[in-house]
Amino acid sequence: MADVLIEARGLRKVHAPRGAAAPTEAVAGIDFRVTAGEAFGFLGPNGAGKSTTMRMVAAVSPPSSGRLEILGMDPATHGPQIRARLGSVPQDDTLDTELTVRENLLVYGRYFGLPRAVIRERAARLLEFARLADKADEQVEALSGGMRRRLTIARSLVNDPEILLLDEPTTGLDPQARHLLWERLFRLKQQGVTLLLTTHYMDEAEQLCDRIVVMDHGRIVAEGSPRGLIEAHCTREVLELRFPPDRQQQAAEKIADTAKGVDARVEVLPDRLLVYADDGEDALTAVHRTGVEPLTALVRRAGLEDVFLTLTGRTLVD
């Protein structure tokens, strides 16, 4: 059995801002464990409690109650020792824009008390890893968003961490930058670094994570591998149908009646209808038999957003 690096039992976080009418329960008693070498993800919409959980794991925000053990230690009493063995990539880049790319790594390494020669060697290696060696002497403010995220990840690895925490690592990046970042993170996992990440992108969770928990309103509503969750909670395929706004309700009623006869399920969203069926083409044929003509029809495989919709009745971007 793989070593357990992070274990939470009944983990809870309550915020009580000054002047607020009542405290807010951001994390509502969750259980999870992360083993060495795996990529573990928290998937959910904004406000689900993902980032709050990450701050507790990073030993910078104490739990309100429950038990949390990281690398065999309690963050309440061993916070500095835990943080020395973690790498952290926050949602927002906190790079020093007045320094060069290389200087950002050199200065950050000093925070861990590393010898200068060690920092210089690691900085050179990490710049190669992040594909930024040719930008080493440029100012950070001249970098693109994708380059800044890669530099932030490189900086988080200066202390050679056992666990890398990534909070929404690709938010705001274009598709090409996202895929390059995924490739770098996959390489880290191959090198044995344990990854813990939050995301509201279903494709990111499917690409990067061995195992995920789906969070909603501070609670875990499902846990498993991406493919296992899809198989457990969804049909194999989904038929997406779009109609003019004034015809959608009538079409939904007709399709719902038809779906009962072909072992399918219909979800009505503001902009489209989703028909969950093992064979999307058969479902489309059944729709056409009703005389309903959609503006567009798309058959696709089910994904993690469908899991979330099935479990919570809303989409990840609600």
TrEMBL record:
It is found in: Cell membrane. Its EC number is 7.6.2.2. InterPro entries: AAA+_ATPase, ABC_transporter-like_ATP-bd, ABC_transporter-like_CS, ABC_transporter_ATP-binding, P-loop_NTPase. Gene3D superfamilies: P-loop containing nucleotide triphosphate hydrolases (3.40.50.300). GO terms for biological process: response to antibiotic. Pfam families: ABC_tran. It is a peripheral membrane protein. Keywords: Antibiotic resistance, ATP-binding, Cell membrane, Membrane, Nucleotide-binding, Translocase, Transport. It is an enzyme of class 7 (translocase). Transmembrane segments: none annotated. Residues 6-242 form the ABC transporter domain. GO terms for cellular component: plasma membrane. GO terms for molecular function: ABC-type xenobiotic transporter activity; ATP binding; ATP hydrolysis activity. Belongs to the ABC transporter superfamily. Drug exporter-1 (DrugE1) (TC 3.A.1.105) family. PANTHER family: ABC TRANSPORTER ATP-BINDING PROTEIN, ABC TRANSPORTER ATP-BINDING PROTEIN NATA. This is ABC-type xenobiotic transporter. It comes from Actinacidiphila bryophytorum.
